[in-house]
Each structure stands twice: as structure tokens, then as C-alpha cells.
Amino acid sequence: MSADESPNSILVYVGLDRVGDSLLKLPFVRGLRQAYPDAHITWLAGKDTSVYASIMAPVVNGLIDEVIEHPGAVDGKRGGIGLSPKELLRRPLGGQAFDLVIDTQKVAIATLILFRIRHKKFVSPFGNFILSSKKPPKDYKFPKLMQRQMLDLLEITTGQSFPTPFQLEIDLDPILIEAARAALPDGPSYIGLSPGAGGLPKCWPLEKFIELARQQVSLGRQPVFILGPQELDWHKEIAAAVPEALFPLQDKGLGAVHKFAPALTMALAQRLALAVSNDSGTGHMFATGGAKLISLFGRTVPEKFTPMAASLTIIRAQDYGGREMHFIPVETVAEAIEAVLAG
Questions:
Q1: Residue 232 half-sphere exposure toward CB, CA atoms < 13 A
Q2: Cα distances (Å, whole numbers) of residue 45 to 100, 142, 197, 199, 272
């Protein structure tokens, strides 16, 4: 493939994709399709699964042609690329070849294994782009922000410019928009609360969310808890402590009916005056839906995982005594709510 020739086949390697990751990477996916409209694009989740193959598949329809998960799995045993040095002894993906391979990670073993995939061009940030067919300027510094990291790789690969979007827009199904309207009808000032995250260390204590919800009730606002399938055990506890709270995904089985589609939460976000969330996929869904977002961070790094929200307030546990989420005071979040609602 010459310097000016567009690739016919592209492989993009990621470790895995959860919902939040997928939204942060979506500008890259859109830009890649824009740059190479006729290419066959394969998305490879080398170390786990990708929601682009499941609940986020509708969002990337027409943008990604194929998603590979657990490559090389045999007899029910977990497969992968970048998991073991033994992979260097064979060519990955059964010797399949691609015109362009884009490695989005900086892990040595994964990059060296990927480099054994037959390719014409290879782009990787590993080792200051030491193996890349295309390289950034000598004074280049890899950014901290995930979506900027991805877009920089795209710019280095294509030679085109891809600005950072600070608000991510997704066309939502009118059926979901109407379902959200029915669940949260006009009238109340809805305050969205998402107590879940990818792991308990990322979660602000549930009792603090409950205390915050009670405060919002006393101020005449309607707390709305967004609970995913992993947080259903909290439903009864929250409902008992805050009888006024709404649970739209659980009411009438709305979440189950729509298979807890991220787009449904995005549609619900459009009905909120404001939302409070941990660093989680739901937080990114709130942002994509257009809600004014207060995002709570502890161990994770906001400089890397900043949601693409039109109105964003970040509260970090480190500013209140430590990296654990419980250091964030309820009063701080309550004051942030008042500040945001006051404009």
C-alpha cells in the first residue's frame, strides 16, 4: 500500500470496551469511517469483550464491519491477544492480513504480538511510536484524555485533523424518547442519581446518595435513581429510605423491556434538570443525553476519563483528604447542585 493509497482492510486493537469506554472512543470510530469510507473495519477486543458487539452495536452500525472478542478461544477456553508471551510463537488471527493495523494501547507484549499480524502499515504509540509506519513530531506528547489519545492516533494515521468533541451527540430512537417522557413526565424538577460503577471502589457510598436524595426532596425536587442490572439489590433499600424516589428503569420493567439499552438512559437524561454520577458508564450516558452532570472521582483519573458533557462539574475525593470516594462530603455535592441549577 503506497503512502497515498487508502487501506481496504483495517484492524483496530483495544483491550476491551465497557459502555463508558465505548462512548469515549466513538469520535475515533466515526472519524475512522469518515477517513476511510470504503474500508472493511475490524474491531478487535484482545483481552475481553466489547460492547460494540452487544448493547452498543446499534450505535456503530455502518461504522464498524466486524467485532472480534476472545480471539483464538478453543473448546470454551478464553482466548485473547496480548495475554501471554507464548503468542509470539504464532501469527495472531490465524495468519489473517490487513492493510492497516492500529494499536490503541501502549503495552509492550500486546504490541509485539500485534506486529506479527500481516500488515502493510502499522500504527502504535508503544515505545514512542518506535514500530509505527507513521510517527508524530519529535516534540509530541501523548495526551492524558482518552478520546484525545484516540483522535491523535487517527490524525497520525490519516494526516487529517479531528478536533475533540466536548459534547457527544447520538440520534435516539423516538420510541425511547417517548418512553422516557412517559416515565418522567413534564412538571417536576428531576435530579438524576447513579450510585453504581464498574466496581465498589469507584462508588460514592450509597448512604451518601440517599442523604443527598432526601435533601433534594426537602427542596421540592424529584430524585430519580438510575439502577442497572448490577445494582438491583439496592432498589429496596433506597426505596425504603427515600419513598419519593423514582426508579424509571425498574418501573413497569422498562429497563428489562428495552434490555437496559444505553440509549434508553440517554433518553431519560434528556428529562433531568441535573445528574450526579460516579465515574461510570451511566455518567457518560447522562453526558451524551445532554444532562448537566456532576461527576464524582476517587481512584480513577478525571484527566483521562472526562465525560463529554455540555455542562460538567468534577468533584475529586483527593481534594477532601484522600483517594477513596467516601472522602467526598455530601455538603460539597449538594452545594454543587445548587450552583449548577443557579446557572
A1: 9
A2: 16, 22, 21, 21, 34
**CB atoms near residue 283 (< 10 Å):** 31
Cβ–Cβ under 8 Å, residues 244 and 222: yes
The rounded distance, in Å, linking the Cα atoms of 213 and 227 is 14
| Ordered alpha helix ranges (H), 36-145 | 108-114, 126-129
The contacts of residue 289 (CB under 8 Å, 6+ apart) are 265, 266, 267, 268, 269, 270, 272
For residue 129, what are the CA distances in angstroms to 57, 107, 113, 141, 253? Answer: 31, 12, 15, 11, 49
| Distance from the first to the final alpha carbon of the chain | 53
Taken in order of first residue, the domains within the chain and their CATH numbers are: 9-158 (3.40.50.2000), 176-341 (3.40.50.2000)
pLDDT at 58: 94
| Beta-bridge mates of residue 44 | 13, 68
Supply angle C-alpha 172, 178, 183, rounded to 5: 115
Which single residue is written with the C-alpha cell 483528604? 321
- Residue 318: the pLDDT is 96
Asked whether the beta carbons of 289 and 265 are under 8 A apart, the reply is yes
Q: What averages of pLDDT result for each successive group of 10 residues across the chain (343 residues)?
A: 79 96 97 98 95 96 96 64 88 94 96 96 97 95 95 98 93 97 98 96 97 98 96 97 98 96 98 98 97 97 93 97 97 98 93
